[in-house]
Design goal:
Largest sheet: 4 strands, parallel
Order of helices and strands: EHEHEHEH
Number of domains: 1
Strand order of the largest sheet: 2-1-3-4
CATH topology: Rossmann fold
Number of strands: 4
Distance between the termini: 41 Å
Strand content: 15-25%
Shape: globular
Length: 115
């Protein structure tokens, strides 16, 4: 794994047979448009936000080791349904040394286009 890499983090409950393919492709496209390295996927599929998320913990370890410096997410909701818990997890990734990039929602894109 290259140092200073890009990662995608996704979590879904209940388990998604397609492994959040549409989210993954949108985030891969975002990485490509942004000139980032091809992202490595960390997927906690079938994991409740209240349970231990092994791939999230692996991602945090890779950030701390310097292997990942940018994490792409569809939104902080991917960490937890509770906004405070989701923010706390996002803060953990930032504190470990990652730049967190949240994909713009269709609603926020519509607002930006209207301005």
């Amino acid at each position: 794994m290259p140092k200073n890499g890009t990662a995608i983090y996704l979590r879904c409950y209940p388990e998604d047979h397609w492994e959040m393919l549409s989210h993954r492709r949108a985030l891969e496209d975002l990485a490509d448009r942004s000139g980032l390295a091809r992202p490595i996927l960390y997927l906690d599929n079938g994991t409740r936000s209240t349970e231990c998320a092994p791939r999230l913990e692996h991602l945090l370890a890779d950030i701390a080791a310097g292997w990942v410096d940018t994490v792409l997410i569809p939104g902080t909701w991917v960490f937890a349904l509770c906004p405070e818990t989701a923010r706390a997890t996002a803060d953990r990734l930032r504190a470990a040394g990652a730049h967190l990039v949240e994909m713009a929602s269709p609603r926020s894109r519509a607002v930006l286009q209207a301005v």
